[in-house]
Amino acid sequence: MEVSNTIFSDKPVIVSYDGTWYGLLTAVFDAYSKKWNVSGFSVIDRESQSDFFAEKVVVVTDEAKAQRVWLGLKKKVPKENCIQLYRCYLSEIAGIELTIFSCIKFYFSGFDSPHLAYGNPDVLKVNQTSKMVYREKHRMEAFVRFQRTADDLYYAGIEPDFNVIPLLNEHFAERYADQNWLIYDIKRKYGIYYDQNKVEEITLDFSNDAGAKTSVKDVFHDSETLYQELWQNYFKNVNIPSRRNIKLHVQHVPKRYWKHLIEKK
């Protein structure tokens, strides 16, 4: 995808897409091929503020177009910088799509080593946002606490600041390769399930009717309570009151994660 000489029109356009990564890359492709002057993005069927004077266009996700953009990026910048764009998309920060689009335009502009041009505000923001998402990924890898269910499934509920579920597959598939597990993002209502063979995305029904007749004892394995008590006692015994530094502790383990940590219950 060579677009360094593309001249864009002056008429502002709001691009509406399906909210997926491939959808966003498709929007990038169409914006170049149709020479749109993109002033913003919106997700189909989701309320958002838009430019009153801008024309709204709807993009249909096309994997072939998305792949052309992705392969073109890999020719312009190192792989890590391509991944940074994906992490930014996972941040779900309002308006981040326009930052990603502007950064991609700059990467295709013909400058040498454009990924190192931190004087460009879009390149800088992509770098900073990617780091925030990457830190959240590592926190989830450290703070996930599995609980064993009655049917030998290891379940963990999480509520990360960013949508890091797609970044957790490899770590947990390698570390817990001999177990069936499910990591579920309670905030975003989807998760990843591993059956000792592959990882796949799933959604669950947590409606009141679905769980009305199910008690906690019916859900968890008989040994789960014992293991949780042992884990809690371990942390209690290794805690030295005279060396307690709450401020430092909160820096490493922010309070927003505590409700999902067994040792904090």
pLDDT below 50 for ≥5 consecutive residues: which ranges?
210-217
Strand order of the largest sheet: 4-5-6-7-8
Distance between the termini: 53 Å
How can the largest sheet be summarized?
A: 5 strands, mixed
Structural summary, described in words:
The protein is α/β, with parallel strands linked by helices and 265 residues long. The chain has 2 domains: 12-134, no CATH class; 144-264, no CATH class. Helices cover 42% and strands 15% of the residues. It contains 10 helices and 8 strands. The chain has helices spanning 21-33, 63-76, 79-91, 96-107, 121-143, 169-175, 208-211, 216-219, 224-238, 246-252; strands spanning 12-17, 37-43, 55-58, 147-148, 153-158, 180-185, 190-194, 199-202. The strands form 2 sheets. Strands 4-5-6-7-8 form a 5-stranded mixed beta sheet, with no helix packed on it. Helix 1 (21-33) packs across helix 2 (63-76). The radius of gyration is 22 Å and the shape is globular. The N and C termini lie far apart (53 Å).
